[in-house]
Design a protein that fits this description.
Length: 206
Protein backbone atom coordinates (compact mmCIF):
# COMPACT_ATOMS: atom_id res chain seq x y z
CA UNK A 1 0.00 0.00 0.00
CA UNK A 2 1.31 3.45 -0.80
CA UNK A 3 1.96 5.62 2.26
CA UNK A 4 -0.59 8.28 1.48
CA UNK A 5 -3.42 5.80 0.97
CA UNK A 6 -3.66 6.83 -2.67
CA UNK A 7 -3.95 3.91 -5.08
CA UNK A 8 -1.61 4.61 -8.03
CA UNK A 9 -4.10 2.95 -10.37
CA UNK A 10 -6.75 5.57 -9.46
CA UNK A 11 -7.31 8.09 -12.21
CA UNK A 12 -5.68 11.46 -11.42
CA UNK A 13 -8.00 14.00 -9.80
CA UNK A 14 -9.69 16.73 -11.79
CA UNK A 15 -7.16 19.42 -10.90
CA UNK A 16 -4.20 17.23 -11.87
CA UNK A 17 -5.83 16.41 -15.20
CA UNK A 18 -6.52 20.07 -15.90
CA UNK A 19 -2.93 21.07 -15.08
CA UNK A 20 -1.57 18.29 -17.29
CA UNK A 21 -3.88 19.33 -20.14
CA UNK A 22 -2.81 22.96 -19.75
CA UNK A 23 0.88 22.07 -19.67
CA UNK A 24 0.55 19.87 -22.80
CA UNK A 25 -1.24 22.66 -24.62
CA UNK A 26 1.33 25.30 -23.66
CA UNK A 27 4.20 23.04 -24.70
CA UNK A 28 2.45 22.14 -27.97
CA UNK A 29 1.94 25.83 -28.80
CA UNK A 30 5.60 26.48 -28.04
CA UNK A 31 4.70 28.84 -25.18
CA UNK A 32 6.44 26.84 -22.49
CA UNK A 33 9.65 24.85 -22.52
CA UNK A 34 8.99 21.71 -20.41
CA UNK A 35 12.61 21.69 -19.23
CA UNK A 36 12.28 25.27 -17.96
CA UNK A 37 9.09 24.33 -16.14
CA UNK A 38 10.88 21.41 -14.45
CA UNK A 39 13.61 23.79 -13.27
CA UNK A 40 11.05 26.12 -11.69
CA UNK A 41 9.33 23.26 -9.87
CA UNK A 42 12.62 21.71 -8.75
CA UNK A 43 13.79 25.09 -7.46
CA UNK A 44 10.73 25.76 -5.31
CA UNK A 45 10.46 22.17 -4.07
CA UNK A 46 14.08 21.68 -3.07
CA UNK A 47 16.14 24.88 -3.17
CA UNK A 48 13.94 27.73 -2.03
CA UNK A 49 12.31 27.21 1.32
CA UNK A 50 11.83 28.69 4.77
CA UNK A 51 15.61 28.59 5.26
CA UNK A 52 15.71 31.73 3.08
CA UNK A 53 13.32 33.61 5.34
CA UNK A 54 15.14 32.33 8.43
CA UNK A 55 18.33 34.03 7.23
CA UNK A 56 16.47 37.32 6.91
CA UNK A 57 14.92 37.01 10.39
CA UNK A 58 18.19 36.04 12.10
CA UNK A 59 19.98 39.01 10.54
CA UNK A 60 17.16 41.34 11.58
CA UNK A 61 17.46 40.05 15.16
CA UNK A 62 21.18 40.82 15.42
CA UNK A 63 21.29 43.96 13.31
CA UNK A 64 18.88 46.81 14.12
CA UNK A 65 19.88 48.74 10.98
CA UNK A 66 19.00 45.73 8.85
CA UNK A 67 15.66 45.42 10.69
CA UNK A 68 14.89 49.08 10.00
CA UNK A 69 15.90 48.69 6.36
CA UNK A 70 13.69 45.65 5.66
CA UNK A 71 10.73 47.36 7.33
CA UNK A 72 11.30 50.20 4.89
CA UNK A 73 11.83 48.20 1.66
CA UNK A 74 12.10 44.45 2.21
CA UNK A 75 12.14 43.39 -1.46
CA UNK A 76 15.08 45.62 -2.36
CA UNK A 77 17.14 44.75 0.72
CA UNK A 78 16.75 40.97 0.52
CA UNK A 79 17.64 41.04 -3.16
CA UNK A 80 20.71 43.16 -2.40
CA UNK A 81 21.86 41.17 0.65
CA UNK A 82 20.83 37.62 -0.25
CA UNK A 83 19.92 37.69 -3.95
CA UNK A 84 16.28 36.77 -3.23
CA UNK A 85 14.21 37.95 -6.15
CA UNK A 86 10.42 38.04 -6.43
CA UNK A 87 8.99 35.53 -8.84
CA UNK A 88 6.66 37.89 -10.68
CA UNK A 89 7.74 41.24 -9.33
CA UNK A 90 5.51 41.15 -6.27
CA UNK A 91 6.64 43.13 -3.25
CA UNK A 92 7.48 41.58 0.09
CA UNK A 93 6.76 43.56 3.21
CA UNK A 94 8.40 42.68 6.54
CA UNK A 95 6.12 42.79 9.60
CA UNK A 96 7.88 42.94 12.96
CA UNK A 97 6.21 41.25 15.92
CA UNK A 98 6.66 43.26 19.11
CA UNK A 99 5.50 42.98 22.72
CA UNK A 100 2.39 44.93 21.62
CA UNK A 101 1.65 43.56 18.15
CA UNK A 102 1.38 40.06 16.72
CA UNK A 103 1.16 39.82 12.92
CA UNK A 104 -0.34 36.89 11.03
CA UNK A 105 -0.63 36.37 7.28
CA UNK A 106 -3.35 34.87 5.11
CA UNK A 107 -4.55 35.03 1.54
CA UNK A 108 -8.33 35.21 1.79
CA UNK A 109 -8.86 34.81 -1.96
CA UNK A 110 -6.52 31.98 -2.88
CA UNK A 111 -3.01 31.15 -1.73
CA UNK A 112 -0.72 34.16 -2.34
CA UNK A 113 2.43 33.46 -0.34
CA UNK A 114 5.99 34.81 -0.23
CA UNK A 115 7.60 31.97 -2.22
CA UNK A 116 10.90 33.82 -2.46
CA UNK A 117 11.51 33.56 1.27
CA UNK A 118 9.29 30.65 2.39
CA UNK A 119 9.14 28.25 -0.58
CA UNK A 120 5.86 26.46 -1.27
CA UNK A 121 2.88 27.13 1.00
CA UNK A 122 1.70 24.46 3.47
CA UNK A 123 -1.60 22.74 2.65
CA UNK A 124 -3.49 24.33 5.57
CA UNK A 125 -2.58 27.81 4.31
CA UNK A 126 -4.66 27.15 1.20
CA UNK A 127 -7.60 25.64 3.09
CA UNK A 128 -10.93 27.49 3.18
CA UNK A 129 -11.31 27.23 6.98
CA UNK A 130 -7.92 28.89 7.64
CA UNK A 131 -8.57 31.59 5.06
CA UNK A 132 -11.92 32.60 6.51
CA UNK A 133 -11.46 31.90 10.23
CA UNK A 134 -8.12 33.60 10.77
CA UNK A 135 -9.72 36.87 9.70
CA UNK A 136 -12.80 36.51 11.92
CA UNK A 137 -11.18 35.01 14.98
CA UNK A 138 -7.38 35.02 14.79
CA UNK A 139 -6.91 34.34 18.50
CA UNK A 140 -8.77 31.00 18.31
CA UNK A 141 -7.00 29.93 15.14
CA UNK A 142 -3.62 30.72 16.70
CA UNK A 143 -4.64 28.76 19.80
CA UNK A 144 -5.23 25.73 17.56
CA UNK A 145 -1.60 26.05 16.46
CA UNK A 146 -0.67 26.01 20.14
CA UNK A 147 0.03 29.74 20.16
CA UNK A 148 -1.35 31.84 22.98
CA UNK A 149 -1.25 35.53 22.25
CA UNK A 150 -1.47 37.67 25.37
CA UNK A 151 -4.71 39.67 25.64
CA UNK A 152 -2.76 42.92 25.77
CA UNK A 153 -1.41 42.27 22.30
CA UNK A 154 -3.14 43.49 19.21
CA UNK A 155 -3.35 40.83 16.48
CA UNK A 156 -3.02 42.20 12.97
CA UNK A 157 -4.13 39.98 10.08
CA UNK A 158 -2.59 40.78 6.71
CA UNK A 159 -4.25 39.67 3.48
CA UNK A 160 -1.71 38.77 0.78
CA UNK A 161 -2.33 39.60 -2.84
CA UNK A 162 -0.54 39.09 -6.13
CA UNK A 163 1.11 42.49 -5.60
CA UNK A 164 1.98 42.26 -1.91
CA UNK A 165 3.34 39.36 0.14
CA UNK A 166 4.28 39.45 3.81
CA UNK A 167 7.10 38.06 5.93
CA UNK A 168 6.53 38.06 9.68
CA UNK A 169 9.62 38.75 11.77
CA UNK A 170 8.83 36.85 14.99
CA UNK A 171 10.07 38.20 18.32
CA UNK A 172 13.57 37.11 19.23
CA UNK A 173 13.26 34.58 22.05
CA UNK A 174 14.66 35.52 25.44
CA UNK A 175 17.84 33.72 26.44
CA UNK A 176 19.50 34.08 23.03
CA UNK A 177 21.70 37.06 23.88
CA UNK A 178 25.05 36.83 22.14
CA UNK A 179 23.95 34.09 19.73
CA UNK A 180 25.32 34.17 16.19
CA UNK A 181 23.07 34.56 13.15
CA UNK A 182 23.77 30.94 12.23
CA UNK A 183 22.66 29.68 15.61
CA UNK A 184 19.60 31.94 15.72
CA UNK A 185 18.43 30.67 12.32
CA UNK A 186 17.62 27.30 13.84
CA UNK A 187 14.93 28.97 15.98
CA UNK A 188 13.08 30.45 13.02
CA UNK A 189 10.35 28.17 11.69
CA UNK A 190 8.15 28.53 8.63
CA UNK A 191 5.07 28.89 10.82
CA UNK A 192 6.67 31.65 12.86
CA UNK A 193 7.23 33.61 9.63
CA UNK A 194 3.55 33.19 8.67
CA UNK A 195 2.70 34.33 12.20
CA UNK A 196 0.77 31.29 13.43
CA UNK A 197 3.53 30.34 15.88
CA UNK A 198 6.33 32.00 17.81
CA UNK A 199 9.99 31.30 17.13
CA UNK A 200 11.33 28.21 18.95
CA UNK A 201 12.65 28.61 22.45
CA UNK A 202 16.42 28.24 22.85
CA UNK A 203 16.11 25.22 25.13
CA UNK A 204 14.34 23.26 22.36
CA UNK A 205 17.49 23.17 20.22
CA UNK A 206 20.18 22.88 22.87
FE1 LIG B 1 -3.92 34.45 -3.28
Amino acid sequence: MPHDGHDPSDPPDDLTLRVQALESLLVEKGLVDPAALDVVIETYEHKVGPQNGAKVVARAWVNPEFMAAIKEDCSAIIDQEFGYKGRQGEHIMALENTPDIHNVVVCTLCSCYPWTVLGLPPVWYKSAPYRSRVVQDPRSVLAEFGTTVADVKEIRVWDSTSEMRYLVIPERPAGTEGWSEDKLRALVTRNSMIGVEEAKLPETIL
